[in-house]
Write a structure and sequence with these properties.
Blueprint: H1 2-5, H2 8-11, H3 15-31, H4 37-57, H5 68-80, H6 93-129, E1 134-139, E2 142-148, H7 149-174, H8 193-199, H9 209-214, H10 217-244, E3 251-252, H11 271-294, H12 309-332, E4 334-335, H13 337-346, H14 351-362, H15 366-383, H16 392-398, H17 407-410, H18 412-418, H19 427-441
Antiparallel strand pairs: 1-2, 3-4
Bound molecules: arginine.
Protein name: Argininosuccinate lyase
Pfam families: ASL_C2, Lyase_1
GO cellular component, one term: cytosol
């Protein structure tokens, strides 16, 4: 029973939040006269002693004391004697743990936000460097149209901006204090919930005691936002893994963020990227775990809810590592731009530009232009050359309306430079997007 019941092996991570909650609670008990001012002061000082003890020695995993709440109360009694017993007046472990965990998740969100901002700055720096570097843009992983590497990296900047706003939303919704909801029904003591809420930096108290002690949607929102970040990072990791492979050769990962093989001396393996990709699966698993734990629970508290913490802690640790690793890889990777350019040139990626030119200059309907271009691509493919290497007489043989001005749009540089629509890949557009992004971050 002791072993299955105890949460101290993992919830000791909440000790700071638990003591902060208790300090706010006892200050309120003193201010409202529920506990005498002298006792309240003694308890408050005792909580500081407990904090110093944990800071110096860590939190012991004492299964008899079950969880961080019992543990801290026992430590408090050791420090100040029986007056410690007054702390738990007008409180239950149910509102206590809900308060602790909300505080912890709030801190976690703030940490993730700092890390994500760092990741965005890394993306911006590399995007700026490569605003003109041409690479193939893909659909179906087939060469589609040329884009710039800067544009590609900025796509991840945008995803990360939305990720950060998801965390900000979760933070705002979750920033309400359950303290004072007591076990489930509230309390008959004349407590001041506004006071404890303000002391803990919450925007105010939660409005329904049953809801406050028995919902964990704030944790699920954290995990949802975390899973979405992990998913985005996993896609970039996957691209780095592909790009670092020899047939692609688009990127060289730094020594710092890759590993060797114990048998093959030539190897430089993208282990960190693979683990970011792998960790995303585990983080999604954490989200699933908590949703499934919660879905069948009648109101209010059931002990199943003690299982809310391990998946959140696990996801948070994995996410922190993943963001740090991806940031490091982006910062230190060498992009092999000649290979990227050659791949863009080899894939007939300016075929759309030829078709667009026929529409614009020849007044040809797009469907027909598409067909004419298809014939040009087929011919170039047969000869093993690029579109802009086809002699003019071959092009005019396909369609007499083609003239030598067409060569102005067939190069990959001309192609990307022409994509000036808002949100497009033209280097001028990408530079403007980077400038706007920098302003947003500042
Ligand atoms: N360790 C418990 C948890 O994490 C604290 C709340 C226990 N409440 C109770 N009534 N048994 O959920």
């Amino acid at each position: 029973m002791r072993e299955i019941n105890a949460s101290i092996p993992f919830d000791k991570r909440l000790w700071r939040q638990d003591l902060a909650g208790s300090k706010a609670h006892v200050a309120m008990l003193g201010a409202t006269g529920i506990v005498g001012p002298q006792d309240a002061a003694t308890i408050s000082a005792g909580l500081d002693t407990v904090a110093a003890h944990y800071e110096a020695n860590g939190v012991a995993e004492d299964m008899v004391l079950e969880d961080i709440h019992m543990q801290s109360e026992a430590r408090l009694a050791e420090a100040i004697g029986p007056v410690a017993g007054r702390l738990h007046t007008a409180r239950s472990r149910n509102d206590q743990v809900a308060t602790d965990f909300r505080l912890w998740v709030r801190d976690a969100i703030d940490q993730v936000d700092v890390a994500l901002k760092g990741f965005q700055l890394a993306l911006l720096a590399r995007a700026e460097e490569h605003a003109d570097s041409v690479m193939p843009g893909f659909t179906h992983l087939q060469s589609a149209q040329p884009v710039t590497l800067g544009h590609h990296l900025m796509a991840y900047f945008e995803m990360t901006a939305r990720d950060r706003s998801r965390f900000a939303d979760a933070r705002a919704r979750g920033n309400r204090s359950p303290l004072g909801s007591a076990a489930l029904a509230g309390t008959g003591f004349p407590i001041d919930r506004e006071m404890t809420a303000a002391a803990l930096g919450f925007d105010g108290p939660t409005r329904n005691s049953l809801d406050a002690v028995s919902d964990r949607d704030f944790a699920i929102e954290y995990l949802t936002a975390a899973a979405q970040v992990a998913l985005h990072l996993s896609r970039l990791a996957e691209e780095f893994i592909l790009w670092a492979s020899q047939p692609f050769g688009f990127v060289s990962l730094s020594d710092q963020w890759s590993t060797g093989s114990s048998i093959m001396p030539q190897k430089r393996n993208p282990d960190a990227a693979e683990l970011v990709r792998g960790h995303s699966g585990r983080i999604i698993g954490c989200l699933t775990a908590l949703m499934v734990t919660m879905k069948g629970l009648p109101l209010a508290y059931s002990k199943d809810m003690q299982d809310d913490k391990p998946p959140v802690f696990e996801a948070h640790d994995l996410l922190g590592l993943s963001i740090a690793a991806m940031t490091g890889m982006v910062e230190s990777a060498t992009f092999r731009t000649p290979r990227m350019r050659a791949a863009a040139e080899a894939g007939f990626s300016t075929a759309t530009d030829l078709a667009d030119w026929l529409v614009r200059e020849g007044g040809i309907p797009f469907r027909e232009a598409h067909h004419i271009t298809g014939r040009a691509v087929k011919l170039a493919e047969e000869r093993g050359i690029a579109l802009d290497q086809l002699p003019l007489e071959d092009l005019t043989a396909i369609d007499a309306r083609i003239d030598d001005r067409v060569y102005g749009v067939l190069s990959v540089d001309a192609s990307v430079a022409s994509r000036t629509s808002f949100g497009g890949t033209a280097p001028a557009r990408v530079r403007a997007a980077i400038a706007a992004a920098r302003e947003e971050l500042a």
